[in-house]
Amino acid sequence: MNEEAELLVEIREPLAFLTINRPQRRNALSVSVLISLARTLKELAQEGKVRCAVLRGAGDKAFSAGMDLTALPEGLPEELQKEIQSKGPLQYGLEAIEDSPFPVIAMIRGYCVGAGCETSMACDLRVGAEGCRMGMPPARLGIVYPPEGLHRFIRNLGYAVTKKVFLTAELFEAREAYAMGMLDYLVPEEELESFTQDLARRIASNAPLSVSGHKRVLKMLTPLRDISPEEREEINSIMGRALASEDAREGIAAFREKRDPVFKGK
User: Fold this and answer.
1) Of 24, 22, 26, whose CA–CA distance to 6 is shortest?
2) Are 245 and 122 within one domain?
3) Whether 17 and 99 share a structural domain
4) What is the pLDDT of residue 66?
5) Strand order from edge to edge, sheet including 62-64
6) Is the pLDDT of residue 75 over 70?
């Protein structure tokens, strides 16, 4: 398997280690990373030799600090371009994690925020180092998160904790994130890699058909409920109104300028 510049792939059968390799951008998710991630997971599933994968960020600053809004790479097959454009690149990449027949463990150190935090929610388990920080900042940016993303948090954290995460827009320290269920395991920084690898090997030692079967059936039991055309229209209106607001411009400007935003409700 070829190694992608922005996604490093290391196979130690029966495990795979996938590293988002953009440390200079705190491993922000580019379209290329998401396409490479989806392609790699599908290839590994077809080969049938991997029983568990670990997803991590390069360096020690971040698992992923969010989404890097870049254009679609050139030279993609037309069918793939249409699929990515219809779903959005983030949804395309995260569905590949959820549809993978083998479990994917998020190994988290440093910042895990925004789209990076949602990526961790798409994984089957999350292991965090004691110094990591997790959160969702849309309310501080003046935008409304899409229902598919909100559903990932509800499915993992429940309705009440999801409200806390999105309404406060706080950056949670590791111990609070663990108490809230955002992390399944919390370990000392120096033990993160060894603990995660041991966990992955324990999972890989179980019966593959049972593991993949449970993953698939559990997903089928917790689907995003059907949204009526009227509800979808209202959701799109809510999201569009927020995105076009003065508050959204202020939130993004404040983020870039590293200052507190001043919102007016307009």
Assistant:
1) 22
2) no
3) yes
4) 93
5) 62-64, 111-113, 133-135, 171-173
6) no
